[in-house]
Amino acid sequence: MLPVRGRNGRAARPARLLGTRTAWTPVSDGEFFCPGCGGDRNYQRLTGHRRFMLLGVPVLPRGETAPVVECAACRRHFGTDVLDHPTTTRFSAMLRDAVHTVALAVLAAGGTCSRTALEAAASTVRAAGFDDCTEDQLNALVEALAADTGRAYGQSCGAGLAIELHEALDPLAPHLAPVGRESILLQGARIALADGPYTPAERDVLATVGAALTICSDDVTRLLAAARTPS
C-alpha cells in the first residue's frame, strides 16, 4: 500500500494504530511558585487516567498516573512537591516575620532594652519589611512578651522562646541559601552588640537561632565572633 501524500507532495506520516493517552481531570487550584516561569503563577492540580488507544479511539483503561501540577501560564507539568515551595509573596512574609521574631528574642535576652539596642532592632525590622516599626513598639512588645511568659529580662532562652524561634525559622530555613541563613543570624548578633558585648543570655538566644536555621555550632561561633569585628 502506497503512503498517502500531502498537498506538498511529500508522504504523509501514517496514523498511529496503537498508543496510550492520558486524560487529565482538575481537582484543585491555587497559586504557586512556578520553576519554569520563575515567579508566582496560578496552577491546577490534575489527576490522570491512562487509556489504551486504537486508531485514536480510547478502548481500554490503563490505570491512573501520579498527580501533577500544571502552570496556568507556561502549561508545564510538575510533581506535586513543587507546592512545598512558598510563593514569592509568602516567602517575603516568612522572612519578615523571622527577622522580627529574632529581634524580639535578642532584645528580651539583652536585659535592659537599651535605646541603642532598640534603635538597631527597629532599623533591622524596618529593613525586613515592617516599614512603620518603631523603638517604642518593640519595647512594648518585649515587655508584653516578658509579662506573658513570666520571664525576666536577661534570662537564657527558655523553652517557650525557643519554640517561638523554631516556629518562625524552621519552615524558612530549607528555602534559604547558606548566606541567607547566616544573614539572619548576623542581624540578631548586631542587635545584641549594639549596647556592648554579648551577654550569656544573648549568646544562648543566638545559638538557638543558629540551630533553627540549621547552621552548625562551629559556624555559629565563627559568625558571632566575626560580627564583633568592625568591617
TrEMBL record:
Domain Co-chaperone DjlA N-terminal: 97-222
SUPFAM superfamilies given in the database record: TerB-like
Name of protein: TerB family tellurite resistance protein
Origin species: Streptomyces longisporus
